[in-house]
Amino acid sequence: MKASIHKSHVRGKVTAPSSKSYTIRALMCAALAQGESEIVNPLDSDDTRAAVEVLSQVGVRVRRRDDLWLVGGGQFHQPEVDLFCGESATTLRFMSAVCSLVPGRCKLVTGPSLAKRPVKILVEALQQLGVNCHSQGDVAPIVVNGGRLRGGFVEMPGDVSSQFVSALLFIAPLAEEGVEIRLTTPLESKPYLLMTLECLEQFGVTVESSPDFREFKVRKQNYQPARFEIEGDWSSASYFLAFGALSGEVEVSNLNPRSQQGDRVLLDFLKEMGASIELSGNSVTVRQDGLKAIKADLSDCIDLLPTMAVLAGAADGRSEFSGIARARIKESNRVAAVKEGLERMGIEVAEEQNRLVITGSNPKDAVIDPKDDHRIAMAFSVLGSMTGETVINHAECVSKTYPEFWDVLKSIGCEVMIDG
Q1: For residue 239, how many other CB atoms are within 10 A of its CB?
Q2: What are the domain boundaries of the chain?
Q3: What's the CA gap between 300 and 124, in Å, rounded?
Q4: How far is CA 214 from CA 40, 178, 205, in A?
Q5: What are residue 157's phi and psi, to 5 degrees?
Q6: Helix H or strand E encompassing 113
Q7: How far, in Å, CA of 320 to CA of 307, rounded?
Q8: For the purposes of burial, counting CB atoms within 10 Å of the CB of 81, is it exposed (0-12), middle (13-18) or buried (19 or more)?
Q9: Which residues pair with 292 in a beta bridge?
C-alpha cells in the first residue's frame, strides 16, 4: 500500500488514540489478578491484539464490549500452540516473564523484524530468579518451562530496555521469595518504568524503589482486580502536533497533561523551537509558526526521534539530538531510516553513534521507505505535507499502533491518496 501526500494546509481537531503502552501493561496486570478486571478505552491495534491473543492461549479470558475489555485472570494453563507475539516487543518481553508462572512449556515466537531484537539480557535475568528458560542466542524464539518462580536477587543492566525491568516487576509479587532487582547501569526510558509502577499500584501491588531507580524490592503479594482507564497516547499524538507546527493548526484532545508518558516532553521541545501552543484541559492546539533549531537529549523519549527529526528538517538552523543509540534496535534502525528519508528529501544529516545533527532546509518531493516501521511512516507524512508530492511505501505498517492514521489525516485537510 502506498500513501501519496500532497502539499496541504491542515486545520482541525483529532482525538489521540489510547496508549498502547498502558493498554498492554493493564492487560498483564489483569492477567495476573484473580478475578475479572475492566480495561476502559483500550487501544485496538496490531500490537495489543497480539498481547490479547497470547494471553488467551495461556488461559486469560478477554471479552470485548465496545470501549471496554473484561479480563479474567489468575488461571493459567499450558498453551497448545506456540505463542506468536507478532512484531510487538512489549508483548514478547512481558510474556517471557509471565510464562514463568504458566505451568508447562511455552515457546514465544515472533515476526521477522522482532526476531532481530535482543532478549538475552531478560532471559539471563529470569534464569537468576530460578526460571528454566532459554533463547536462540540473543534473540527469539524464547522457550520457558514455567509453573514455579523462586525469586530472589537479580542484577541486570538498565540501559538496554526498560521493558526488561518492567517484565521482572510484573512477576515479582508472585515469586516465592519476593524479588530484589539491582541495575548495574543507569536506567534509561525512566518514564516507561513509571508507567509500569502506576499500573502495578492500581492493581494493588507495592514496589519499593531507590531514589535513583537502580534498586527495587518487591515482597510476595497478590494482584487485585481493578478498573483501569487508558489515557491518550502522546507518541501517536506527536505527529498531529507536528502537523500543526509545520502545516497549519491542529488541536489534539484526549491527552493527559500530567501523564507519566515520556513523549509528553514534545510540548517543551515545540515551545523551545518557537511553535505556538495553547493548552486547555485535556487538549493541545499547535499552530504553524517559523521553527528554529533545537538541541535535545532523547534518552527518555526515544520514540520521539522520528517526529523531532522531521521537525528539525524544516526548522531554521542546525539541530542536534543525543541519546539516540537505542533507536537502532527498534522496529527498524530508526537512526538509519530517519537519515535516509531526510537525505532523500534534500536535508543534510550527520550521524554519530549517539548523536544526530540535522540542518534544516526546504524539503523536496521524495519516495520514502519506512522500513516497515510505523513511526517512520507517520513522521515522514508530516514533511510530505510541505512538498508537492511525497510517496510513502508500505503505508499499512501504521496499523501496528494507529490503524486509522491515514483516515484521521484526511479529516484535518491533508491531501492523502491511498493506492492498494
Answers
A1: 26
A2: 2-17+232-419, 20-229
A3: 24
A4: 32, 17, 19
A5: -70, 150
A6: none
A7: 14
A8: exposed
A9: 316
Q: For cell 521524495, what's the residue?
A: 366
Active site members: 303
Q: Please state which CATH number belongs to domain 2-17+232-419.
A: 3.65.10.10
Query: How far, in Å, CA of 381 to CA of 260, rounded?
Result: 27
Residue pair 239/381 in contact (Cβ under 8 Å)? The answer is yes
Distance CA 200, CA 194 (A): 10
Q: Write phi, then psi, for 270 (nearest 5 degrees).
A: -65, -40
Sheet order of strands, 61-65 included: 61-65, 68-73, 35-40, 227-229
| Contact partners, residue 262, CB within 8 Å, separation at least 6 | 189, 190, 191, 192, 234, 300, 301, 303
* Mean pLDDT, rounded, for 33-56: 98
Q: Phi first, then psi: what are they for 144, rounded to 5°? A: -125, 125
What is the reported pLDDT for 420?
77
CA 100 to CA 28: how far, in whole Å? 13
Burial pattern 266-303, b for ≥16 Cβ within 10 A else e, equals bbebbeebebebeeeebbbbbebeebebbebebbbbbb
Cα–Cα dist 374/405, whole Å: 10
pLDDT band at 80; cut points 50, 70, 90 = very high
pLDDT digits (tens, 9 = 90+) for 6-23: 999 999 999 999 999 999
2-17+232-419 and 20-229, same CATH topology? yes
- Grid coordinates representing 325? 543509540
Query: What topology does CATH give the domain 20-229?
Result: UDP-n-acetylglucosamine1-carboxyvinyl-transferase; Chain (3.65.10)
